[in-house]
Amino acid sequence: MRRHLSIVCATAVALIAPVVQAPVASAHGWVTAPPSRQEMCARGRIACGPVKYEPQSVEGPKGLRSCSAGRSTWAELDDDSRPWPVTTVGTTVPFTWVFTAAHRTTSWEYFIDGTRIAAVSGGGALPSAQVTHTVDLSRYPGRRTVLAVWTIDDTANAFYACIDLQVGSGSAGAGAGTTAPAATSRPAPATTPRPPATTTTARATPSTTPTPRPGATTGKRPAGATTPPLALPSSGAAAPTRAGGSPGAPSPSPVTSAGVAPPGSASASGHGSHPEDAGSSWRPGTRYRVGDQITYGGFRYVALMRHPAFPGWEPPFVRCLWRRI
């Protein structure tokens, strides 16, 4: 029986897991608050391609200054002419990363218009399931796009996320004054136990040597790679902006710790219920998201990862996808 469960789980994960170019880190993560472009796609705030199913998978070689990680699969994330929703923030902004698979970390960096404005060392350690960095944006008022980069310590890859913001009451940049609705909460993705979520403060420092973002993209999705379709609503959004940055900018001022967030905190993002009402019966053919609750065999279960339901994947038999509550 145990061997059967292991085979089912291995098959389920193999079908659900994204296929990415080699070499590939076993890590996945993205910025959920303020919502990054891939997070807006996942919420259905703007019509997108495959990234709406895999916001955590925007991964590419280290050293890029690209919203798409230099991959054609996520190329739409580089398109500044699209009506990306904009989030209004103050001059001190907490950026929250959520990790569906942890990996030893070199650093997290933040860029605006080619300038590295903040950096936080990962020290080669595994991050907790959710990490928040507070960045000072007082020198960058108005309409801005922040490029956030999570650099993995023991592979050649990094993860990339662009966040469209209206900083304070300034008027710099295009599209000032456009605001995305406030984010709702959702459960953080299921992860193995790690240290409590942490919050770090990084001081912004201007740079004098910005370089335009390279336009070339690299990497292709291997032939035959598929992602389960997931219907999401779409809606209008805010005016476009230009994201980018360049390597080689001066290092920011030192980073200091600013306390620890409560363990198990939910990320500040929200997909809402999908597609069933909470507590409905499990049904094959339904596509479930993290946190969806169903009943089966007289028991209640909560989904641990986003997946389609197939016959033979009933909750009691696929413990990697469901947890009884």
Q: Label the overall shape.
A: globular
- Multimerization state: single chain
Report the average pLDDT across residues: 73
Alpha-carbon distance between the termini? 22 Å
CATH H level of the largest domain: which superfamily? chitin-binding protein cbp21
The low-confidence parts are 18-26, 173-193, 204-276
**Total domains, how many?**
2
Rg over CA atoms, rounded to whole Å, is: 20 Å
Number of helices: 2
Can you give a write-up of this model?
With 325 residues, the protein is mainly β. 7% of the residues lie in helices and 29% in strands. It has two helices and 17 strands. Strands 2, 3, 5, 6, 8 and 9 form a six-stranded mixed sheet that branches. The longest helix has 15 residues.
Task: Write the SSE topology.
Layout: H1 2-16, E1 28-33, H2 37-43, E2 59-61, E3 87-89, E4 92-101, E5 105-112, E6 115-121, E7 130-136, E8 142-152, E9 157-167, E10 198-202, E11 256-260, E12 280-281, E13 287-288, E14 293-296, E15 299-303, E16 307-308, E17 322-324
Parallel strand pairs: 3-9, 7-10, 12-14
Antiparallel strand pairs: 1-4, 2-9, 4-7, 5-6, 5-8, 8-9, 10-11, 13-16, 14-15, 15-17
Could you give a short description of this structure?
This protein is mainly beta and 325 residues long. It has helices at 2-16, 37-43; strands at 28-33, 59-61, 87-89, 92-101, 105-112, 115-121, 130-136, 142-152, 157-167, 198-202, 256-260, 280-281, 287-288, 293-296, 299-303, 307-308, 322-324.
